[in-house]
Amino acid sequence: MEYAISVLLSGISVGGQYALIAIGYTLVYGILRLINFAHGDVFMVAGLMGIYFTATMPIGVSIPLVIILTVVLGFTIERVAYKPLRDAPRMSVMISAIGVSYLLQNTATYVTGGQPMTYPSIPLLSDTISVAGTQTKWVVIITPVLVLALVLSLNLLINKTKIGMAMRAVSKDYETSRLMGIKINMVISVTFIIGSALAAVGSVLFFTNYPAITPTAGAMPGLKAFVAAVFGGIGSIPGAVIGAFLIGICETIIKGLPSAWDVSVFSDAFTFALLIVILIFKPQGLFGEAATDKV
Amino acid sequence: MKDRKKSFSAFIGICVLLIFVIILENISGFVPNVPQVLEPTSPLFTVLKKAAVYSLVAVTMNLLNGFTGLFSLGQAGFMLLGAYTYAILTVPTAMKEQVYYLFGGCAFDFSLLDMFEGIFGSSGAGGAVSMILACLIAIVLAGCVAGVFAYLIGIPVLRLKSDYLAIATLGFAEIIRAIFQWQKLGKVTNGANMIKGFPTFSSFNITDGAGNTILRLSTFVPFLISSVCILLIVLLIHSSYGRAFMAIRDDEVAAEAMGVNLFKHKMLSFVISSFFAGVGGALFAMYVANAQAKAFTSVMTYEILLIVVIGGIGSVSGSVIATFLYVACSEWWLRFLDSEHYIGSFKVPLLRNGFRMVVFSVVIMVIVLFFSQGIMGNREINIGALFKKRRPKAERKQ
């Protein structure tokens, strides 16, 4: 029983961390119809920056700095690598995204020397607490709460503000909203800024619970978050969050199964199997709108 | 008539290339004091072998992405299937105990190599025949396994469009990798450990009784297999099927209206591409002399995709040229970026381990952003044109 609770708790917390990445995917896909392969690597870079900054600065300065610099990184990537290809075929933009991901991974290998880096223990987050008789870290409790708060405020932003309205318009119809005088580039930049900021917060939460960061550490969480976004219906924020929680919980349950079965190697494969099943049977996801292809 | 002339000159071109490779490889044995580049241990031959293998895989990816317009990212998964099929089928029975020591031997007590050695003998010409037959059959079977899997995967996946197809094929590659790393299958796949001890490229070097190499063929073999496979793919592209693929790429709806069976042709392209990717995987296993699931990650697929982009999406010769450039740069020419250098007493800044890949990825980004056509665009090199006498322009136009 205690074991079940601890598995469930860590599942919820992993799910929350995936949710923060998944929002970045779902927002960008909703507007640009682009799988931003570099998003997972932005997440990894945020983790590395966290390591370097906390080594020299107090936590109160370094974490906001990590978030700001990640936002700058996301913004720059969009401006340099995606904006020039706005009218190019979708495949070129995706290849550009893969190129950025390759660049970020190789740069990270260069800077770290390829060594796995351990994340510093952040006071409060890394402290242990006992819940229903099981020992766990504070981060496990804080993550879902923080995720919910962030998602609610993001929802407010999207539904109540002018820029949110513009974002919704652009994701509905790119061309028409451009004709209506919406500054497309500004809207896209805002999307990338929001996505990167959430990824930075996610990286702080994710890597405190993670043994080490390698240059490829972002790829897998990134892909899983993308699957979560597809699962929830791409373009839908609540969908992405629910999908992320489900995937996080399933994954920790698979990892927590008796080791005699030796199925933990399938924790990643399961996510992809889920993705394929969804794509075949319900391609619009749980909350997505059915897309109509115009000829 | 003109086509026949063209394919004849292409054939001659490939033969000349293969003979050149043999000479290049063996020149150090006949001519004393060759430059160090031509010694058998030189990076030149590593580059040539790896590039021969990669160019085949790049062309298979181009067949899908460039000629059929299917954005698939599953190439590493199919290579993995090919590599393991080849490895499992050719590890000699005597080696199995040692390779599978963690699992107490292999469940699959059969080796093509032993079978043929039983028929033709294991030394002299008989040994050569059994080696060639065993490797050839194992390579073809490696392709077949990849092709069968591609068929099964294709049934659900090929109904998806562009980026969903990409992510689904990527997912399948990851699933295949997880299955091959599963310890429960250890008796067949050796779990997460590598399979080794099977014939590699250097097994094809001809040696005399005392073990001295008489004729090196270790670079020639990958060149031969790759060029035959690429030739087959080119023939396919120029057939009516190839034209149907290109019609699908250019406009699915129009192609369907013209009577091209979309699903059938997509499946054909997917299966054939995967077949040759499986062959490429087998060759890759021969190149690195082991088969290990860990090597076939999505990073490998990305690498091949970037090669295809650099060469030009929709150009076979572009892919081949880009592969040789890419592999030569990453394995040889840019190696100096990875170690510290001094000019006089001045230490060149930034140079240390990993810098090569950073420079490399910047170059790739520049190509992707500013030269989206790649080296060749969608044109091809016409080997015949290189040897042809220059004719007046008006005549050439026809």
Give the topology, please:
The complex is a heterodimer of chains A (295) and B (398).
Chain A: H1 2-32, H2 39-56, H3 59-82, H4 90-112, E1 128-131, E2 134-137, H5 138-160, H6 162-172, H7 174-179, H8 184-208, H9 219-232, H10 237-256, H11 267-281
Antiparallel strand pairs in A: 1-2
Helix pairs in contact in A: 1-5, 1-8, 1-9, 1-10, 2-3, 2-4, 2-8, 2-9, 3-8, 5-6, 6-8, 9-10, 9-11, 10-11
Chain B: H1 2-30, H2 43-67, H3 75-90, H4 93-99, H5 112-120, H6 124-157, H7 162-180, H8 186-189, E1 206-207, E2 213-215, H9 220-238, H10 240-250, H11 252-257, H12 262-288, H13 298-311, H14 316-333, E3 342-343, E4 346-347, H15 355-370, H16 383-387, H17 393-396
Antiparallel strand pairs in B: 1-2, 3-4
What's a quick, concise take on this entry?
Chain A has 295 residues and is mostly helical. Helix content of chain A is 71%, strand content 3%.
What integer value in Å does the Rg of chain B equal? 22 Å
Structural class determined from secondary elements of chain A: mainly alpha
Number of strands of chain B: 4
Under CATH at level 1, the class of chain A stands as Mainly Alpha
Average pLDDT of chain B works out at 84
Number of strands of chain A: 2
Quaternary organisation: heterodimer
Please state how the strands of the largest beta sheet of chain B are arranged side by side: 1-2
CATH fold type of chain A: ABC transporter involved in vitamin B12 uptake, BtuC
What do you see in this structure?
The complex is a heterodimer of chains A (295) and B (398). Chain A is mainly alpha-helical. Helices cover 71% and strands 3% of the residues of chain A. Chain A has a two-stranded antiparallel ribbon with strand order 1-2. In chain A, helix 9 (219-232) crosses helix 10. The longest helix of chain A has 31 residues, at 2-32. The radius of gyration of chain A is 19 Å and the shape is globular. Chain B is an all-alpha fold and 398 residues long. Chain B has one domain (12-22, 43-393). In chain B, the strands form two sheets. Chain B has a two-stranded antiparallel ribbon with strand order 1-2. In chain B, a hairpin with a 2-residue loop joins strand 3 (342-343) and strand 4. In chain B, helix 2 runs antiparallel to helix 12 and helix 2 runs antiparallel to helix 14 (316-333). Mean pLDDT of chain B is 84; it is low at 389-398.
